[in-house]
Write a structure and sequence with these properties.
- The chain has 245 residues and is mostly helical.
- It has one domain: Heme Oxygenase, Chain A, CATH 1.20.910.10.
- Helices cover 63% and strands 7% of the residues.
- Strands 1-2-3 form a three-stranded antiparallel β-sheet.
- A hairpin with a 3-residue loop joins strand 2 and strand 3.
- The longest helix has 30 residues.
Length: 245
């Protein structure tokens, strides 16, 4: 489709007009795609939110999530390398600095949380990565490193959107059901939510008729892989996930 006119609105919607057709895009399409894979409806969080998980499975989840925290700056860096626009690169560099710089960077804060649930930092060297964890990381890495920067941003926007939602739930219920209430140990959760931020306006401003379906696919596959990441934890623990459609 040869696009003659692109109309973009402040709400993130676009209209691509050609000689033969009109194509509508709204960023709500991305958000709705993510919501179809809403993690809080996963059996893991259904059990978590009523105090139904053991200390052991909390440790298992936390060890697997460590890989995501550890790789996150490198995913952002990969998108930075694929971006020609220096303003976008600057935005990404600021994000990397926010999450990596200083003594209380997000990885160090996650180490602190792990110690509060009985996991020593040294033990991470021999940690086993579950198959669905590896698939999840490979999915993110592919979008960030091998696809267009806007597809990579859509992927990380999905990761941010889903992570922020369930980390807030974890923060609320860790003191209530799991006897973890030390503010120092829980500092990761508000810091991660604040510092890991993907500006969706960058995605909206770089949407085209050629890439908008790829942007939605990136969000959908990332959200699905995150769901399967939780499936992997449940299956390891002996509680199979409900079938998700």
């Amino acid at each position: 489709m040869l696009v003659k006119t692109i109309h973009k609105q402040y709400d993130g919607s676009c209209t691509f007009v050609s000689e033969n057709s009109t194509l509508q895009f709204s960023f709500e399409m991305v958000d709705n795609t993510i919501q179809k894979r809403k993690l809080l409806s996963h059996p893991f969080f259904q059990l978590y939110s009523c105090g139904g998980l053991s200390q052991n499975i909390i440790q298992i989840f936390s060890l697997q999530f460590y890989h995501i925290v550890n790789y996150l700056p490198r995913f952002i860096s990969a998108i930075h390398s694929n971006t020609n626009d220096w303003k976008i690169r600057q935005n990404l560099l600021d994000n990397i600095e926010d999450i990596e710089y200083g003594k209380e960077n997000i990885l160090e804060l996650w180490f602190r949380f792990l110690e509060s649930i009985g996991i020593e930092k040294e033990s991470l060297r021999s940690i086993q990565m579950f198959p669905f964890t590896r698939i999840f990381l490979d999915t993110i890495n592919d979008f960030c490193r091998n696809r267009s920067f806007v597809e990579g941003l859509s992927c990380l926007y999905t990761l941010q959107n889903q992570s922020s939602e369930f980390l807030e739930i974890k923060l609320n219920y860790l003191p209530k059901y799991y006897n973890i209430n030390d503010k120092k140990s829980l500092k990761f959760f508000p810091v991660f939510k604040k510092e890991f931020f993907i500006d969706k306006s960058i995605i909206v401003n770089n949407i085209t008729s050629e890439n908008f379906s790829k942007v939605i696919f990136s969000a959908d596959k990332t959200a699905y892989s995150f769901w399967k990441f939780l499936d992997g934890i449940m299956e390891h623990y002996g509680k199979r996930s409900l079938k998700y459609q």
